[in-house]
Amino acid sequence: MRDALAAPTADDAVAAVESEIADRDYDGFHLVIADDRECVLLEWDGVLRTHSFDPGTHVVVNAGFDDGTGKSRGVRAALTGRDTAGEWLDAARDALRDHTTGACVHHDGYGTRSSSLVSVASDGDVTWEFADGPPCETDYRRVDAEL
Fold first, then answer.
1. Distance (Å, rounded) from C-alpha 51 to C-alpha 140?
2. Are 16 and 7 contacting, i.e. CB atoms less than 8 angstroms apart?
3. What are the distances in angstroms from CA 128 to CA 10, 20, 90, 132?
4. What's the per-residue H, E or C state across the chain?
5. Greatest CA separation found in the chain?
6. What are φ and ψ of residue 28, in 5° steps?
7. What's the pLDDT band for 101 if we cut at 50, 70, 90?
8. What is the residue extent of each domain of the chain?
9. CA 87 to CA 48: how far, in whole Å?
10. Considering Cα of 49, then 4, then 119, then 55, what sign does the dihedral take?
11. CA pair distance 129, 117, nearest whole angstrom
12. Of 111, 114, 110, which Cα lies nearest the Cα of 102?
């Protein structure tokens, strides 16, 4: 899967993932791949499904994305109407920490282990914030990564 990170385009990254899952066994995953021309979600559960995202707000959770689950709908609703990137990120942090949206889960033996916020500006600038633990207990920190 690391080859996807080094791919020069989203299409090349998708091809790298397709090759990798053909050669090795993987548990289920959701992977968002984007470049300056496209953004796609890869869903793997033994069958690979690819979904193209139009510009805008998208929410990917463990059981699906956007309007496909109650959790993703709740988080998307909390983000609606935010005019600036700063407002959006503040609302996203709050929504992902909130137990009423269903985004932060705590149960015996399982639950939310981490959380990421990724925003891509119209100039291509990417911001990634990561909470290395449940976001209701762990602050988001900016990740500076050069690929």
1. 27
2. yes
3. 18, 25, 13, 13
4. CHHHHHCCCHHHHHHHHHHHHHHCCCCCEEEEEECCCCEEEEEECCCEEEEECCCCCCCEECCEEHHHCHHHHHHHHHHCCCCCHHHHHHHHHHHHHCCCCCCCCEECCEECCCEEEEEECCCCCEEEEEECCCCCCCCCEECCCCC
5. 44
6. -60, 150
7. confident
8. 1-55, 70-147
9. 34
10. negative
11. 5
12. 111
Q: What's at 1, amino acid-wise? A: M
pLDDT tens digits along 108-144: 888 899 999 888 777 878 888 999 999 999 999 999 8
pTM over 0.85: no
78-102 exposure pattern, b = at least 16 Cβ within 10 A, e = fewer? bbeeeeeeeebbebbbebbbbeebb
Rounded distance, CA 144 to CA 130, Å?
10
